[in-house]
Amino acid sequence: MNKSVLHKIVNEITSAKYFSLIVDSTPDITKFDQLTIAVRYVNLGGTAVEQFFCFIPSVGHKSKEMEVSILTKLSELNIDIQNCRGQSYDNARNMSGIFNGLQARIKEKSKNAIFSPCSAHSLNLVGCHAADITKEGYHFFSLAQNIYVFFSALTWRWEQLSINLKNIPNSMFVKNLCPTRWSSRYSVCKSLKIGFEAVLSSLKTIALNIDQKTSVRHEAESLYKKIETLEFSFMIALWTPILERFDATSKNLQRINIDLSYVVKLYESLEMYVQDLRNRFDNILAEAKQMIGYEVFSYEEKRNKRKKCFHDDLNVQDTIFHGQEKFKNETFLPICDTIIVCLNKRKMAYIEINTMFGFFLNIEGIDNDILREKSKQLVAIYSEDLEPDLENEIIQFKTIVKHFSEEEKLSMHSLLEALIKSKLNDSFPNVEIALKLFVSIPCSNSSGERSFSVLKRVKNYQRTSLSNEKMSSLALMSIENNLLQCMDWNSFIKEFASQKAKKKF
After folding, report:
1. For range 144-149, the mean pLDDT
2. Helix ranges, 34-134 (H)
3. In what order do the strands lie in the sheet with 19-27?
4. Confidence grade of residue 322 (pLDDT, cut at 50, 70, 90)
């Protein structure tokens, strides 16, 4: 059954010709590293498809070792690496390194295998860097995790929290802080924002309960004092809307039927949102004050330290901020500016790829001479795939696009589907190939990471001795069950019986 499913996937890739690689790795339950391989290609209907191949155990984390394993597997399946036109990995140095990374080694085998960093992973890195850029941001998420650990340690504490949350509409329990899925921190901030009063009340109840141990009461009191501050409530009011947008954007970036033109739009929209939020400090501060009931930050109640002056110091007065201006300039603005700068920097990796093909989305508003020049540049890059006749096809295709609907012109993916659906692809073969090349480039390696969930279900605590070959086969049949269900099971039974029957007829 596994061989039949794999054979069907290989046949589809051979028919599509162009494909892209999606590679990632994770340790299984026995602490053996498993390398997952998936491919992205465009089927005959013009729809982008991402299919899982297999797990390869104990490959190692060096780019050379991964390269050998991938090329060996593709060779076994009779898939030509020369037809690879894209690759998407995470931002680790061994994967994305421009000199010795896996993407550089694959480019040596196929020069047009464009590397596209995982857009969802890049978004997570933006959030991580922004959270750690300031002391308040780092302490906020650490304290949020300490709150969850404290209440989840004993059922009695969890019960106290649930009693206080019952009186709050749309409340939710405090959430665990996931170290890898950064967008999931939205649920952490959302639960704290809605149930802030319940958390404070529960901590106060535990701190005043004389039946509890002294260490428990002291820990509850310590947490209560740390979160009953204007700084903590301000960070909740700031991060909740930001992470809500991060979460919604990340879910869109992980879709299969999305191309790089949409990735650039989503990054730009998120950047503009944070720029608008940057000018709303007073609104966020007012919301934080209403949440906690305090008007000043905790450091304003402390005595300011006087800087010791020496006889040879210049009479230059340092600019010292106080109160709200101090928190705004040292915490709020650095967080917003870091997100904006990092989003713009990460976006450039996708703009460079999108620039080569981007004229297709605005083909009606571009002059014919410019279209000819851009088509020549594209032919020069993909000289093995595209013919010089592309520029003439594009000039004629410009008139055809006018008859497409606005929805069909929103992205390269929809434009390709409209071209094939209209049965005009035979008249524009080079245009079809150009669109397929762009759509086949993956935007994220989410399909590889989704296979890890199946890995945990297949190879669990009860089946730690499962062989690698059987584990990979079961994972393939689970992930690609739609293909398996469409096949003729009687042929499986007959083939199996012919191989295993002891009586020969």
Report:
1. 94
2. 63-76, 93-96, 102-109, 119-132
3. 48-57, 33-42, 19-27, 84-88, 114-115
4. low
